[in-house]
Amino acid sequence: MKNRICLSLADINFNIYSDEKIIIPDAFGPFLNNEAGDGVNINVVTGFLPEINKQPDFKSETHEYFDSFSCVRTSYYDFNKKKYVEYAVFEKNGRDDYTLYYDLSGEITLKGIFDGINYPSVLLNKGIALMHASFSVIGGQAVLFTGVSGAGKTTQSLLWQKHRNADMINGDRTALKISDGKVTAYGIPFCGSSKTAKNESAPLNAVVFPVKSQINKAVFMGKADIVRSLIGSFTYSAESAEESEKIWSFLGSLIDKTRFIKLYCTPDENAVIALESIL
């Protein structure tokens, strides 16, 4: 009898079946369901990888894509061998049915499986975009802090947690879905080094771009500035024309339905006060 793990990400059910035991990292615990539901079905086959005797349609450092995403080969960087080594091949059998061939020495982990299926692409195909952003609930609504690495995304979330008792849902990643004209932010189990991953959601109030400064000032952003700043915050396969079209369509809707704020800030409560004045 196969082992079965069921979990929900951004209201999408994932049903994972495997003959081998799957290790569940702590961050995935809050997202587990007791029973399978309609959604994405993944059958994990271990011990070998099928050969793919063709050139990929396009590729990145860690993924090679064949037959318009019907097949994806995934690699990881082996620091001992000092090169990328393939460990998974992901095949689409039907609209929501997949087989993941998984061949990696050591334990099979739920995170490894989701990396193997290239989960940002799977979510995007379901209308959900993955954003590199720290997600806090402030006054019952989601406020996302995003921007370039080192801009202070997590720092600002922690300041709101400390000074206003805001609830940090995820310190690194956020899933977004647009439905019935409204944008909802979802916590997911992928949280980088923040170690904060809660299975909660909230309507989106604003997206904030922190900028380190000696002053504290919050201003609404113009559309051109939003587009330049926002595209780098989303995870998608830029090599794919299909995915690029989907993400640009999503961003167009998001920009029309959300407030975007640039926050010039210091790492203290004064930054909270400045943002608070226009939220």
Overall shape: it is: globular
Q: How much beta, percentage-wise?
A: 35-45%
- Helix-strand topology string: EEEEEEEEEEEHHEEHEEEEEHEHEH
Number of helices: 6
Walk across the major sheet and give the strand order.
4-1-2-5-10-9-8-7-6
Helix content class: 10-25%
Q: Which regions have little confidence, pLDDT < 50, spanning 5+ residues?
A: none
Which radius of gyration do the C-alpha atoms yield?
20 Å
Distance between the termini: 53 Å
Strands, total number: 20
Major β-sheet, in short?
9 strands, mixed
Q: Which oligomerization state do the chains in this entry correspond to? A: single chain
Q: Pairing-aware structural class of the strands and helices?
A: alpha+beta
Overall residue-averaged pLDDT value: 91
What does the model show?
There is one protein chain. The chain is α+β, with helices and mostly antiparallel strands and 279 residues long. The protein is 21% helix and 42% strand. It is built from six helices and 20 strands. The protein has helices at residues 110-116, 119-125, 153-164, 223-230, 241-257, 269-276; strands at 3-9, 12-18, 22-23, 32-33, 39-46, 58-59, 63-66, 71-78, 83-92, 97-102, 108-109, 128-138, 141-146, 167-170, 173-179, 182-186, 201-212, 217-220, 234-235, 259-265. A hairpin with a 4-residue loop joins β8 and β9. The radius of gyration is 20 Å and the shape is globular.
